[in-house]
Write a structure and sequence with these properties.
It comes from Actinacidiphila bryophytorum. The chain contains 7 helices and 8 strands, in the order αββββαβαβαβαβαα. The chain is α/β, with parallel strands linked by helices.
Amino acid sequence: MRGLRLPRTRTGWRRTVQTVAALCTIGLLPAVWVQLAGGGRVRDLADVPAEPVAVVFGAGLTDGRPTPYLAHRLDAAAELYRAGKVRVLLVTGDNSRTSYDEPGAMRTYLVAHGVPSGQVVVDDAGFDTWDSCSRAKRVFGVRKAVLVSQGFHIRRAVALCEAAGLDVYGVGVDEPHDVTWFAGGAREVLAAGKAFVDAAVHPSPRFLGPPEPGISHALASPQP
C-alpha cells in the first residue's frame, strides 16, 4: 500500500490548498443555509408573536425525567402559555420503546408546572427535527406555531419547519456556554448537512400514521 504523496511543486501545493478550501466551503454551505433560513424568525419570549401552538422539541431524559436542557425548553413553553402567547403545546420526542417515553415525561412536567393537561398534545414519533416538523403539519394539522428549543438548535428547527410548510417563529432558550452547549453547537454543524437534504428531498417521517385531532380539539375547547 502506497503512502500519501505530497505535492512537489508550488503549483501542486496551490492546487491542493484550493481543493481543500473548496471542499471546506461546500461542507459549510448547509450550516450557512441554516443560519440564513432560520435566523430571521428567531425571537425572545417577550417579543415573539402570538400563535395558536407552541412546538417543544425533545432533548433527552435522565431517569425518566427531562434533562436540564429539556426542562428549560418546557419552562419557556409554559411561560408562553401563561402569557397568552400560545393556546396549545405540542410536545414532540422519542417514544420508540416502552422504557423511554420522552413526550410523556414532557407532558407530565408541563402539567406539574401549571399547564392544563387538555392543552398539552403528545407526538410520540418525533424522532428527529425533520420528523417533528413534518408530523406537526401532516399528522396534527399545525399551520402556524412558535418553536421552542435552545439557541444552538432553534435556527435549524425553524428552517426545517418552514421547509415542511409551516409558518413559524422560534424562541431560543438561553443556556450557560458550558461543555454541553459547545457540544450541541458542534453537533449542529454536522446536523446541518442532513437538514439541507431533508429540506430539499422532503422524506416521509420514520412513522407517519393517520391524522390526529388532538390539536384541533384543544384549540376548539374553552380555555381554562
